[in-house]
Structures are given as C-alpha cells and as structure tokens.
Design brief:
alpha+beta, 2 domains, three-stranded antiparallel sheet, 11 helices, globular
C-alpha cells in the first residue's frame, strides 16, 4: 500500500482545507496508555465467528474526478508493477461482506490505524489509475458503511481492533473482547487524516464522512491541548475499567495532532513544537523525546522513521518537523557511509514472535537497536523496511542514499 501511496502523493501534500470545525467538541478530563500503531500479537483461535453483511452508504450525488493534484507524469513500467503488487495486498485481504481489510494477512482483524492505511491506499490506487472510478466508489462507500456500523468503546470512540468478518471488538491478537480494550488517539488521528483527505479530494462523500466523525465523542481524548488513549484494567472486583493516559509516542503524537487540527481541535500541546531531547547517532543529533512538563510517560520511547515520513507525505514539512525529519534521515545516511549497511529504520509487522519489530535509529539509549513491541531487544531481528525505503525516495527523489 505504501508504494501506491508514496507515488500518488507526488511532491505535494494530500491533505487539503478545513470544511468542518469541531472546536467545540474539545474538553474534559484526560485519557489512556499509548497504543502502538498498528500492532498485533499471537492469535488464539476462537469459535467460528458469525459474519455480518455491511451495506455501502447510498450512492453519492454527482461523483467527480478528484479535486486534488494528479500525478505530473505517467508511471513507468516498473513503477506500475510496484503499484499493482502493492494493491494486490488489498485484493487478497479484502473482506467482501464488510468492506474491511485486515492489517496482517494471518489475522482477520483491523485496527483503526490500518483502516486509515486502507483509505489512503484507495486514494493512491485511484490517483495512479490502478483501480477504476467504479471500484474506488464501491470500496469507499462500503468502508464508510462499515465505519457507521462499527460498535464504539463505551459508546465514545472506535475500539482498538475489529474482526473484519463480524465487526466485533477484538484485541491485537484477533481474540474477541466483548467489552473492548480501549481506544487509541493515534489510530483515531490516522483515520481522521484520511477521512479529511477523502472529503477534500472527493467532496461528494462529505456528508457521510462528517456524520461518522460527529458520532464520536472526543471529551476524554482531547484535553487541555493534549491527546490521550484508553486501555482497560480490572479492579479488585473483576470489573473492567478504562484507564486514560496521555499519548507521548515520538512522532506519532505530532502526526495525530496535525490530523486533529484539520478538524478544528485545539491540540497545540501535542502538535510539533517546543524542545526535543536528542542523542548523538553517527554524529547527528537525533530526536528521542519531547521535553515536557505535562507527562512523565516513558512508554516505548524509541525513534523510527514511520511517523515523520507520514507527516511529510500527507501534511508537508513545516520548519521544525523538517529539522527532525532531516536529522533522522541523515543518521541513516551516515551509517551507510560508515558501514555500507543499508538502513531504512521503521516499524514492521512480522508473522512470528515478537510479531512487531521496531528497527530503531535509537532505542533504550542504544543506536540501531531492534526491539519487540514488549520493548525487549530482538537480537538479529533488524530489518530494512521497504515501506521506509519507498517513502524516503518519494520525499527525497534527488538524494543518492534515498535512491540507493
């Protein structure tokens, strides 16, 4: 999908103007432990699920070609093969009865982050003419139909995961969780960004998109300019209670905040800004954490490329984000110059333990450490991410290392 997405984006941000303001929906006490976007763990087989059928939203009025910029030159033969290979994932893992796509091919489950990825892929595939206008419309309307029907955690916000066959809440391993396991502000931010892009480029879907977003309650997610997520804990009586904590994951917090800003939210304290702690990696000052007084969270503090690339591709690079982005890329370039080791440092899902690998630029105060999602070092587990490689090449097409 990212291959499709990065080529379609060209050299201009995909995200456009701001049609609906939700500034009045911000307030109230705060929220939860950071979620890792998107993460899955081992699957525990369960009883045969009862599939549901989701009807697409009604046909939209006056469908038009995208109002967002088209690519400036045709795809080469090689680029088209890359794009079609990327789209093949969304063909193979499409659940036709609900319109959802699984995050990982061995798990019939989707996070809200993953559904944002799918919506971005749909936009890219249509922009590149990999799919027809008819297929784009059919898939988009069915996905919007599913988003209107998916149950919400405590009636507020999307659950962390959904069974793609039944729409029931699941954990990251695909196991049913009737009460849910909370919500992720990062995941919500991801899909808010792509929904905003959808209605900006295809205004005919605006009514359906706005209805979905207005049905969610943000009172515990946005608080005093910050973002928060919820997990579920058990009290001494065995009752499930939401635990709400601030989101502080480097890069992802800034990405999600920018998405919320598109919808009129005041999330200034989560948006890129202020001071960042750095660590020297290959002689380059790489950001490792935001300097803050509103939280002492140390959850999964590591630096990877993914959120900074998404920010640049979708929103463009403002001056401070550009400085963070540049140093993150430069450290990887310098490692290659020193060792001839190709480095594309990112988070990747794999189909064996630990299931999620963070091939970091720096983590746990060590450069180039590979970590599982449990924050334990994953010896010999470092990967070169094709996602990150394609994205850097899209962002920096004239750079020799990005080309390499």
């Amino acid at each position: 999908m990212e291959i499709l997405y990065y080529k379609a984006r060209g050299n201009r941000p995909l995200i456009g103007g701001n049609n609906v303001s939700f500034a009045n929906f911000n307030s109230s006490p705060s929220v939860a432990t950071p979620a890792t976007p998107p993460t899955t763990t081992q699957v525990t087989p369960s009883a045969s699920p009862v599939a549901v059928t989701v009807a697409p939203i009604p046909p939209v009025d006056n469908p038009q070609p995208s109002s967002c910029p088209a690519i400036t030159q045709p795809l080469t033969g090689v680029q088209r093969r890359y794009a079609e290979a990327a789209w093949a994932y969304f063909i193979a893992n499409y659940q036709s009865n609900t319109g959802l796509v699984s995050d990982r091919k061995d798990v019939k489950g989707a996070t809200v982050w993953g559904l944002g990825n799918y919506l971005a892929a749909l936009h890219a595939a249509r922009t590149l003419d990999v799919i027809s206008a008819k297929e784009f419309d059919q898939r988009t309307r069915q996905l919007l139909g599913a988003l209107t029907q998916m149950p919400l955690f405590m009636g507020e916000l999307p659950h962390r995961g959904y069974d793609t066959r039944t729409l029931q809440a699941i954990d990251y391993g695909g196991n049913p969780t009737p009460e849910g396991s909370g919500w992720s502000a990062l995941d919500v931010g991801r899909i808010l960004a792509t929904l905003h892009n959808l209605k900006t480029c295809h205004p005919e879907y605006t009514t359906a998109v706005d209805q979905i977003v207005l049905d969610w309650s943000y009172l515990r997610l946005v608080n005093n300019g910050t973002l928060a997520s919820a997990t579920v804990i058990k009290d001494k009586h065995g009752r499930s209670l939401p635990r709400v904590n601030p989101e502080t994951r480097l890069g992802y917090e800034e990405y999600a905040a920018r998405a919320f800003q598109l919808w009129g939210f005041d999330v200034n304290r989560a948006a890129v800004g202020g001071e960042y702690k750095t660590a020297k990696v290959e002689g380059v000052a790489v950001p490792i954490q935001r300097v803050r007084t509103d939280s002492n969270s140390q959850t999964n503090q590591y630096t990877v490329s993914n959120p900074f690339l998404l920010y640049g591709l979708e929103f463009g690079l403002d001056p401070q984000m550009r400085s963070l982005f540049t140093n993150i890329f430069q450290a990887q370039t310098e490692r290659y110059r020193r060792t001839k080791t190709l480095t594309a440092a990112g988070t990747t899902l794999i189909e064996q333990q630990p299931y999620t690998v963070h091939s970091t630029i720096t983590g746990q105060n060590q450069p180039w450490l590979a970590l599982g999602d449990d924050s334990k070092p994953f010896a010999e587990g470092r990967l070169v991410s094709t996602v990150v490689a394609f994205a850097y090449h899209a962002m920096l097409p004239g750079d020799n290392y990005a080309q390499e």
